[in-house]
Amino acid sequence: MSSGEPLDIVIVGGGTAGWMVGTALVSGLRPNQARVRLVESDDIATVGVGEATIPAMRDYNRFVGIDEVEMLRATNGTFKLGIEFLDWGFQGSNYHHPFGVHGQAMGGAAFHQQWNRARLAGHDFDIEEFSYAIAASRADRFEFPNPDPSLIESSYSYAYHFDASLYAKFLRKVAEGRGLKRTEGKVVAVNRDGLSGDVASITLASGEVVKGDFFVDCTGFRGLLIGQTLESPFEDWSHWLPCDRAWAVPCARGGRLTPFTRSTAREAGWIWRIPLQHRSGNGYVYSSAHISDDEAAAVLMGQLDGEALDEPRQIRFKAGRRTASWTRNVMAAGLASGFLEPLESTSIYLVQAAVMNLLKLFPGKRVEPALVDEFNRRIDREYDRVRDFLILHYHANTRTDAPLWKQCREMEIPDSLKQKLELFRRRGHAPSHRDGLFSLHSWTSLLLGQGVTPEGYDRLADNVPLSQALAEMERQRAAITRRVPLMPSHADFVARHCAVPARTAEVVA
Ligand SMILES: Cc1cc2nc3c(=O)[nH]c(=O)nc-3n(C[C@H](O)[C@H](O)[C@H](O)COP(=O)(O)OP(=O)(O)OC[C@H]3O[C@@H](n4cnc5c(N)ncnc54)[C@H](O)[C@@H]3O)c2cc1C
């Protein structure tokens, strides 16, 4: 960015996206680089869901300098070691997508290649027994990973569950403390420059006109600037991801404080359960073509762990993304830029990816097309990767109970996913983090969990004699079995490290 007058940035919208973007901008830019203002309307509610995250969020916290313990206390937060998937590949199936590795590589080949080689030779190990994160999840235990990479208890990562509305409030405090200016007001008009066509200002219901050099659209599904004003097209992906509605309801927390999100497949979609300190968040994400709203609400209310704490609330959506999240002098983040269902808790990550890329490609007073193109290329790649990952959950199934699952099994999938599936089936090769979300271990856990098994393996695995590989696998499995019981329970850990003070006893209960 060139020196001179600071850029006037106006963020429209104060949901999770608006406040994450605002906090990152005032943390990453100096006052002589940008003045940041956020406009939000008390009359227009935020979507009010979005309570599970992935480990990348820790990078966001580090970047903006948020202390996670303080954040978890402020948001009734808990820790997350992964997601448990029930009934996904087939009814009765149960697997975890852990935030961590499945075993250590051997002989230049990934661990799952050695595991598959052993399997093909008749040694039937359960690959989940080699994941520390899964063993800890199943035992409801949590502690911070050990930084010493030689120890088995270093082989995992973690994320958070939190109360979404409290999180936005928490960020607001941080951002305002660092100079962000907040204005309450409803935007009634978006005004474009007659010559350039860029957005020049917004008009509030009070009559105030807020001018800016650059605008960030965080107005949620409305996409007030990016869609309604600049008409950036929305690419519809609902033929691959047919769920288009959700019922969400909080309930009293019953039983264990699990360090994982639970996702249970149902006849017309899936149900989430997110454990917080003071309650559980629940929701049924479903396809309205396959179940009525009333039936879906009844299914959700019938499986709560505890007493409902509110009436269920319906949210409607369509899977897809803007073809250009950055158009002219407007960048969209959050629901304004696209929506992918919360099956892998990726929306908050996509907000993070948007603002971090904006900071890297930060514009001057005049927007440069090369920066815009690069931004859109990066964001498209992020969305494509998440999309393929999500579609795989639906496509690779052998469920016979309901039409949704047959439809998803038989649907034409994107070529990019076809190629990934074929490569995994042939030699067990899976994508890696290098190209965006997700890591090799995430892809492997999903592919194997959904019942896709490779018929061959990476020949590099043969560099280690099979007997040696088997002995090493036994050693790794035994190390996990020995170490996990020494961890504190998740409830004790939360009570000790980050309980909302009045709740310590409640968390442990
Ligand atoms: C069912 C469901 C479950 C989800 N679960 C997860 C999850 O577990 N993990 C995850 O990462 N993500 C999840 N998400 C996504 C997550 O909720 C969103 O990405 C996140 O909350 C960001 O929303 P937002 O800020 O873009 O939009 P919103 O929360 O809708 O905020 C929009 C803001 O714009 C303002 N606004 C709108 N119009 C105007 C106007 N005219 N004038 C002034 N202000 C205006 C509103 O007042 C509000 O402040 C989920 C989404 C859904 C639908």
Automatic annotation (TrEMBL):
SUPFAM superfamilies, alphabetized: FAD/NAD(P)-binding domain
Pfam families the record matches: Trp_halogenase (PF04820)
Lineage: superkingdom: Bacteria
InterPro entries with a match to the protein in the record: FAD/NAD-bd_sf, Flavin-dep_Halogenase_NPB, Flavin_halogenase, Trp_halogen
Annotated protein name in UniProt: Tryptophan 7-halogenase
UniProt organism field: Caulobacter hibisci
